[in-house]
Amino acid sequence: MTIRWMPYLRDKSHPIDVGRLQPVEQAWGVQLPETYKQLVCRYQGMAPEPCVFNVGGAEDVFNDLLTITPIEGRESYSVMRVHAVLAPHLPPGIFPFGRTPGGEYLCFDFRDAPDSPRVVLVTGERSILSVANSFQEFLEGLHDG
User: Fold this and answer.
1) In this protein, which residues make up the domain named Knr4/Smi1-like (predicted)?
2) In this structure, what CATH number is given to the domain that contains residue 23?
3) Interatomic CA distance for residues 112 and 81, integer angstroms
């Protein structure tokens, strides 16, 4: 299924150069998946359609892709800001990339596979739930609710 990216934080796409990801990768000490880098450079702050994903025996919604370049007045959507808030409460190796409508975070989990991170959901209680074995698998699993 093809994913369409819809305006969410802004009224249109605000692409960035892939070089803007280097400080994030350096700060986190990871190499982000190429598919993610291509998407976030083009669609940061946007919402996917379809947007539903499976987690455990339930479904949740991928609300929006966090931003690489902060938006004035909406800094709380920045991957760096979200990571700074979450990091003290999570094991090292987990890095956010998206949000759900309920304020939970979709994250890369580099703990077991530094070259191929899994996708996990970090709940409001800071539980870590497995979602997909890779970012590509996560995207392929998005569906209508």
Assistant:
1) 15-141
2) 3.40.1580.10
3) 24
Task: Output Rg (C-alpha) for the chain, integer angstroms.
Answer: 14
pLDDT at 11: 87
Domain residue limits at 43: 4-141
Number of separate domains in the chain: 1
140 and 50 in contact (C-beta within 8 Å)?
A: no
Distance between CA atoms of residues 88 and 106, nearest Å? 17
Q: Please tell me the distance from the alpha carbon of residue 142 to that of residue 145, in angstroms, as a whole number.
A: 9
CA distance 29 to 25: 6
Please state whether the predicted TM-score (pTM) of the whole model is above 0.70: yes
Contact 134, 119 (CB under 8 A): yes
H or E segment to which residue 137 belongs: helix 135-141
d(CA 109, CA 96): 9
